[in-house]
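Hi there,

I know you've been waiting on this one. I reran it after we fixed the sequence typo, so this is the corrected version. Both the input and the resulting structure follow.
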Amino acid sequence: MVVYSKIEDDVKVTDTRYFICSIEDDPDKFAYAVRNHWGIESMHWSLDVTFLEDSKRVRKDNAPENLSLLLKMAFNIIKMDTSVKKSMKIKRRKAGWNLEFLEHLLTCSK
């Protein structure tokens, strides 16, 4: 069990989350595993929001792994761009509609 607290609009919000794992009597190891889990989940959430990854129907042979790799590459290319203060989803759409912006994304370096 993890009790998570944050201050939102000057109000303390507390949430309790439960995990099933095999880590025994090592709170540091457990805390590390929980933080790692949410780091991975946040990336998957971002990929789903930006590319609707969960709705993809790619299932045959190596296609799911290949598509996942391409989406992560595209996600990282978009994420590196700091020229426009817009969401990842808006930047992805803009790159699809505007060839100059797409070229900018593909040639920019941080």
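Quick highlight: The first strand starts at residue 2 and ends at 8.

Best,
R. S.
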